[in-house]
Amino acid sequence: MRSTKLGTMMAVLVLSASTVWAQQDRPLSPRGQASTHIGGKWIDITYGRPILRGRNGIFGEGSEYGQQIYAGAPLWRVGADVTTTINTEADLVFGGNTLPAGEYTMFAVLGEGEWTLVFSNLGGKQTFQEETENTVWGAYGYTDELDVLRTTMRVSEHSVSADQLIVTFTDVSSDAGTLTVWWDNQIATVPFEVAD
Questions:
Q1: CA triplet 4, 8, 12: central angle to 5 degrees?
Q2: Which residues contact 117 (CB under 8 A, 6 or more apart)?
Q3: What's the CA gap between 14 and 20, in Å, rounded?
Q4: What angle do CA 182, 118, 92 make, to 5 degrees?
Q5: What average pLDDT does range 128-140 have in this prediction?
Q6: Tens of pLDDT, residues 96-116
Q7: Burial of 40 (0-12, 13-18, 19+ CB in 10 A)
Q8: Closest alpha carbon to 84 in 46, 121, 50
Q9: What local confidence, expressed as pLDDT, does residue 169 receive?
C-alpha cells in the first residue's frame, strides 16, 4: 500500500515538474503571422502577440496614451519581442503614398483616435544582445532616418476586448484591403490598395 502511495506521489511530482518546465520554455508573447493574397501577390506580417494578462486599459488616456505600451521606446513595435516585419510582393498604396514591394519593419506612434503607422528599412534583431548596424530590438534604438513611409490609422474603441494582440487583413478585395490592429478595446485600421 505504501509503495503504491509513494509511486503515485512520485508520478505527481514528476508531472508537476515537467509542466512547470514546459511553461517556462513557452514564450510569454507567442509569434503570430497575418497573410493575405491580393492580385496574385502575397503580403505577410510577422509579429509577437502580447497577452493582456489581466491588465485593463493598457493604452491609457490623455497624455499617457500609449506610454505603457512603449515601455521606454520612442514608439511601438506593433507587437512584442522581435520587431514586427511586413513582407509584400506587391507595391502597396497607403494614403496616396506607395510602399514598394519588399520587406520592412513596422512601428506605430500611438495617439487617442489616431495612430501613425511607420514602415522602415531598419532591420530587426533576433536577440537583444545582437550588435548589427541599422537594426533594433523591438523599437529600442529606433530612428526615423530609415523610414520609408508613414500613414495615418483611424482608431476606434470596441465594446469587446481582445486579450491577445491581433494583426489581420480585413475587407480584402481583388486589389485592396484594410490593415487592422486590435488589442484590448482599441482597433486601428488603415486602407490600402495594390499599385497599378
A1: 170
A2: 78, 94, 106, 107, 108, 150, 151, 152, 153, 179, 188, 190
A3: 10
A4: 90
A5: 75
A6: 999 999 999 999 999 999 999
A7: exposed
A8: 46
A9: 98
CB neighbour class for 147 (10 Å; exposed up to 12, middle 13-18, buried from 19) = middle
Q: Which three cell numbers stand for residue 138?
A: 523591438
CA-CA-CA-CA torsion sign (70, 73, 76, 77): negative
Q: Which amino acid is at 159?
A: S
Question: Taking a C-beta distance cutoff of 8 angstroms, is the pair 172, 36 a contact?
Answer: yes
Rounded to the nearest 10°, the torsion over CA 175, 176, 179, 185 is -140
Residues 6 or more apart from 157 whose CB is under 8 A from it? 185, 186, 187
Q: pLDDT by residue (tens digit) across 58-102?
A: 999 999 999 999 999 999 999 998 899 999 999 999 999 999 999
Q: What's the whole-model pTM score?
A: 0.84
Where would I find the H helices in the chain? 2-25, 67-70
- Alpha-carbon gap, residue 160 to 44, rounded angstroms: 26
Q: For the chain, which residues make up each domain, given as ranges?
A: 28-194
The residues, any chain, with a CB within 8 Å of residue 141's CB and separated by 6 or more, are none
CA distance 70 to 99: 25
